[in-house]
Design the sequence.
């Protein structure tokens, strides 16, 4: 057992505060990591405030972890002390169901174990995430980082925002010659713009924040549409091969479904606390359009994404914060005021 300090939510409405707990002893297949940086995902906020009605308290959020290996178990060959390593949203799965067999641990039929909040839905022991100074993880769920060490804080958000957007972009075979929409320019959305652009697509960014227009173009969008402007939206009717919707709040999906070509798909990755208004059946059936969903990504695909991003020099655009400012960061995230991911400098925990 090793003593750990972190920041936790203790109930849905009180600000996060320092919390001490223990990590398990390093087992034969475990890697212990000193956490250097942890990104702040909107899912952390949903969980801290029990917006999905499944939070186990105390809750230590954080699943965009980059750090340095400080110990390895006796059976470990892939990592050694001093290596830079990453941990994303998953720390365990059954390893025996069909999904795990296909490397789709996020769809484990017996329920994966989240990096925080334990088994995603249903009973089981709580787990504590990356708003802390160290973590102990089975090597199967530890990622190799091939980015250079000079900008590791900006690599951390790839572990969730990166893979959550990369996976559906790959699944729906986004590439050159395609017109691809990204809805929402937050943590996930800005990664989607960068990755879809690197995959060769023509990227159109939809935003509710007109002041993000220039940034979207700089990040790799070819066009920007202010989604509240009906004329701007109408100019794109029936024209998209694929749309990735990252919005964290309920909204009218029909406005975007009507922009899809025949047989094209809009995939939701945003996970609002309350449902979207139902889409119009007619908007779907007349053009055989599809509405889909996607959850993070498996471990092999997360490694593929990290290597892809290193090769294309893709990192996140970040604003570094001290852990003491996490509650203020959550409030700013709710106002869509994040450019484009908060990352906690975990050195700040030492003064917590
Ligand atoms: P974020 O940084 O807060 O970004 C969300 C963006 O959505 C905002 O920046 C804003 O972009 C847009 N938005 C917010 N409120 C809106 C509204 N009322 N109407 C329209 N647009 C609105 O959040 P994130 O970390 O990217 O996460 C986004 C969502 O994905 C969250 O619900 C999160 O829990 C979920 N998520 C899902 C998965 C998965 O596996 N499926 C993984 C990670 C996160 P503009 O200012 O450009 O409009
Ligand atoms: Zn996340």
Sequence:
């Amino acid at each position: 057992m090793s003593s750990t300090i972190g920041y936790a939510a203790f109930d849905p409405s009180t600000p996060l505060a320092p919390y001490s707990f223990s990590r398990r002893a390093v087992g034969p297949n475990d890697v212990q990591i000193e956490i250097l940086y942890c990104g702040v995902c909107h899912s952390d906020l949903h969980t801290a405030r029990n917006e999905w009605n499944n939070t186990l308290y105390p809750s230590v959020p954080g699943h965009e972890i980059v750090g340095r290996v400080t110990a390895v178990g006796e059976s470990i060959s892939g990592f050694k002390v001093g290596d830079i390593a990453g941990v994303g949203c998953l720390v365990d799965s059954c390893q025996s169901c069909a999904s795990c067999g296909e490397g789709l641990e996020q769809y484990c039929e017996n329920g994966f174990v989240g990096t925080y909040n334990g088994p995603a839905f249903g009973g089981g022991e709580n787990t504590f995430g990356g708003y802390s100074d160290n973590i102990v993880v089975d090597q199967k769920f530890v990622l190799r980082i091939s980015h250079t060490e000079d900008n590791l804080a900006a690599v951390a958000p790839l572990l969730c925002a990166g893979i959550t957007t990369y996976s559906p972009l790959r699944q729906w075979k986004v590439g050159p010659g395609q017109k691809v929409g990204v809805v929402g320019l937050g943590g996930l959305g800005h990664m989607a713009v960068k990755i879809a652009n690197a995959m060769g697509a023509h990227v159109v960014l939809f935003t509710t924040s007109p002041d993000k227009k220039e940034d979207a173009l700089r990040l790799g969008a070819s066009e920007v549409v202010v989604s509240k402007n009906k004329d701007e939206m109408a100019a794109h009717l029936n024209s998209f091969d694929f749309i990735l919707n990252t919005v964290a709040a309920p909204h009218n999906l029909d406005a975007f479904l009507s922009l899809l070509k025949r047989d094209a798909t809009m995939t939701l990755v945003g996970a609002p606390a309350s449902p979207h208004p139902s889409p119009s059946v007619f908007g779907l059936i007349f053009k055989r359009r599809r509405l889909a969903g996607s959850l993070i990504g498996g471990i092999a695909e997360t490694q593929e994404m990290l290597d892809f991003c290193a090769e294309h020099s893709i990192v996140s655009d970040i604003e570094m914060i001290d852990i003491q400012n996490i509650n203020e960061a959550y409030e700013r995230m709710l106002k869509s005021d994040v450019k484009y991911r908060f990352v906690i400098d975990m050195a700040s925990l030492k003064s917590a």
User: Anything to note?
Assistant: The radius of gyration is 20 Å. The chain has a mean pLDDT of 96. The first helix runs from residue 42 to 48. The chain has ten helices and 17 strands.
